[in-house]
Amino acid sequence: MKKNTTTVGIAVAVMMTHSVSAQNVTDSTKKYFASLLKSGNEADKALLQTKLYDLLQTKDEENWSTASNYFYQLGKAKTSDSIFNAQKVKFPLGMAMRGEEVTAVYDEKDPVKKEAAYKAWVKKFPVPKNTGTNNIVYDYARNAVAMAYANAGNTAKGLDYTNMVETNLWKGNAYMSLAEAMMKQGNYKEVESLCKRTLESVNEFKTFRKDEEGAGFARIAFGGANAMYAKALAAQKKYNEALPYIKTAYDSSERVSPDTYQTYADVLSALNKNKEALDIISQATLKGLATQPIKDKTKALYAKVYGSQEGYDAYIEKLNKEMVAKMLQEIPSKMISKPSPQFTLKDVDGKVVSLADYKGKTVVVDFWATWCGPCKASFPAMQMAVNKYKNDADVAFLFIHTWEKGAGDASAAAKKYVTDNRYTFEVLMDLKDSVSGENKVVSAYGVNGIPSKFVIDKAGNIRFHLTGFEGGNDAAVEELSAMIELAKKSS
């Protein structure tokens, strides 16, 4: 995946004709470029390339960034990288170089050295006088320094750098990042303060600033801030105060997190509302989000409500059956049918493996990377699925490591990770192509984010596509199993 840390919302300066102007591009021109990119006509792709090369004749760095980004989307990663590198030379104090050198701030672990790196970076690339989302790159760097100090126990310095955040629509997220660190350290009073500030910021974008660009993004922090506020209050045994906040978090979230279910049940239970607590936490099982702590809490609450554990297993079995039944009802509507791109890759030991080798089998292809947190979080569930089908000769799993980062041996790193964690996965390596600089297989599948899973039937057609991981191993296995079984029947 291309790493381009320039600016947010880059504007292009180009005319619709073959000549180029330095004025800002209009929305209609952006749509025009997008239509050329999506066109299946090679002449349109050629026309887009011509216009992108025209952008490189200007002295506007944003044009160069636009050209680089569009070439990448055209599948010409090598050209994109060449333009990006030339851009850094042509504009040594520009946005590309600024984005390149800020990595020194992110890479440093020691908070004092990280702060020094930040100050050196800002001295070389002063904060522009104009405000807005284009300056958010500075806020990200400030947040990195804030978190380094907070995690080292220096709350004051963490607050100092968090208070420097300028982008209004991102302030709530910055406060929440710091609050998370404070929660881990048991600094609940500071968590309360930060959550209050988050809610004040978010409420602006829920009321008189609701129509501003980015307001929807700013409002995302609302549920999390209420949940964390409640968790901090509950940790101080302020259960009556915590109740309205956790209820708001629960009621306002489209997808309730396992942690919110847990906190809500904890608060209700502490207030001797055990039946309500059991009803709430049971929803986590019904939604397929029952982590081990939630399972333990459900069992404890059941005993409190019914006086013993008698009947508990039947209760859980009923919840699981309802969860599976609802899942099975919804899964067929997610079924698709399109030819799977073929590929030939090497595994972590250098053995050549092709998708064609699995002709006649139902194949699960899982794109992942060692740096991807959600990918790794999904692996216990994936191991459960692999174990479930280990004796089924008609089902195979291929774990494709892609979008490698850094200069190290990606194959060795991938092998070490699965070996250290005792995963019995067949891992293939989708390394960058030496000519195009592209990870060809992940691009062929049109993947925009990982983890990304595809269920391919015996005839070689993609029948299901899953992206991300929300937690809840049991539900993940049931969902994938249902998809495998439907794929087996469809081919």
Automatic annotation (TrEMBL):
> Which InterPro entries does the protein's record reference?
AhpC/TSA (IPR000866), Thioredoxin_CS (IPR017937), Thioredoxin_domain (IPR013766), Thioredoxin_ResA/DsbE_sf (IPR050553)
Q: Does the keyword Transmembrane apply?
A: no
Signal peptide (from-to): 1-22
Keywords assigned by UniProt, alphabetized: Signal
Q: Which GO terms describe its molecular function?
A: antioxidant activity; oxidoreductase activity
Residue ranges occupied by any Thioredoxin domain in the UniProt entry? 334-489
PANTHER family in the cross-refs: PROTEIN DIPZ, THIOL:DISULFIDE INTERCHANGE PROTEIN DSBE
Protein's name in the database? Redoxin domain-containing protein
Which organism is this entry from?
Answer: Pinibacter aurantiacus
